Amino acid sequence: MNSTDDKPSRQLDVHKSSDHPEANVFVDKLLETYFPDIYSTKSKKRNSFRADLKVLLLDLYVSWQEDPEQTIGVGMSNSFFKKSSRYNALHISYKLIEIVHELRAAKLIGFKEGSEWSRKVSRIWPNKKLIKLFEQAKFGLEDIHPTPDRECIILRDSKKNDIEYEDTEYTHRIRADLRQYNELLADTFIDIPSLNTPIIKKQGDGGDIRITQNHKFLRRIFHNSSFEQGGRFYGGWWQNIPKEYRQKIYINDNPTIEDDFSALHIMLLYAKQGLEYNWDGEDPYYIPINFSNDYEEARLVGKLFLLTALNAKDKKSGFAAARNTFTDNNIRYKGKFNQDFFEDYLDKVKDKHPPLEEYLCSNAGVGLMNIDSQITEKIVNAFTSKNIPILCMHDSFIIQVQHDNELRTQMLKTVEQVAGTNN
């Protein structure tokens, strides 16, 4: 690997685990070969070193299997490793830094130093010597999984940092529910069998999405230090693929169908004011734009703008985010999406949806996410209790075709329970 700057990268996952006998044989053999002094002792240091080494090797193996070009970001400061943190279920300590240096000295991994000042962590990747050992390994990706104790309820502050919190009856309950759901997903085979290779290439710089059984662990992420903001489910690979691929998903070798709520956040805000949207009129997202005659494109512009505006703190950040979102969705009209356009378009949105005016560009999105996460929670729990696997997006659900009618009924029932409307 000549340069890491343009290579895909992700953060180290300290929750990789495997109880496969060959995984333990692999770790012990490497420990004996490259760290004989530590291997020959029976001290606590050996056990601790081996445990941390195993986590690091398993994650390097997973990363290499996912993408041989991928690097792993590792903080090389003691502050990155909080052994007592709820987000460190395997209690990995700062001594992992020592192991990184040892593997580097043994020429088992490549290393590019980061900079704490610029908030760029160091990056590592397996060198040829370690790759050869990986190729000879007698275990596979299917034998590596998240540790069962991994924290799945995440609380973040306003700067998007994970923060500690005191458990309550509520957090205990939603954690237990989500762990049960994750256990069901872990035992479920989710695939897109029509792909020749299990990779979906995204447009732009989004990177490749790998269809794997290793990316099914879901977490609920709450924001702004509050369990009343956010709370959506994140982590499944199906959440990142384009819509046209989602309809090709099979669950346990059965075809699926995706059902969604139409304009969910708009409907929730109308319901909040005791109103219902008139579906006999135009599509809630459609607003004509004078430089495009494409109805579907105009509708997409409306949808992207409205959702962005609901999540924005103010007009400046909202307009900038909308412009970037249009580009990401390949909606490009050079010079057209300027300040005047957005000011005029925002007025048109307010004219079309007067009940939404106070919520636009006012950071209402995280509150709405909390409501839609409650809807998702109830729907997911209903099917998990019946041992029926269901995949959640944020306003839609994927389920085996034979359960379609049951899903639709449950969606209507749940949105009425939570929002007081099934419009």
Give a concise summary.
With 423 residues, the chain is of the alpha+beta class. The chain has 13 helices and 16 strands. The strands form five sheets. The protein has a five-stranded antiparallel β-sheet with strand order 8-13-14-16-15. A four-stranded mixed β-sheet has the order 1-3-5-4. Strands 7-11-12 form a three-stranded mixed β-sheet.
Describe the structure.
With 423 residues, the protein is α+β, with helices and mostly antiparallel strands. It is built from 13 helices and 16 strands. The strands form five sheets. It has a five-stranded antiparallel β-sheet. Strands 1-3-5-4 form a four-stranded mixed β-sheet. Strands 7-11-12 form a three-stranded mixed β-sheet. Strand 9 and strand 10 form a beta hairpin. Helix 8 crosses helix 12 (365-384). The model has no long low-confidence stretch (mean pLDDT 91).
Q: In terms of structural class, how would the helical and strand content be classed?
A: alpha+beta
SSE pattern? EEHHHEHEEHEEHEEEEEHEEHHHHHEEH
What spatial order of strands do you see in the largest sheet?
A: 8-13-14-16-15
Helical content class: 40-55%
Number of helices: 13
Number of strands: 16
List low-pLDDT spans. none
Largest sheet: 5 strands, antiparallel
Distance between the termini: 55 Å
Estimate what percentage of residues fall within beta strands: 5-15%
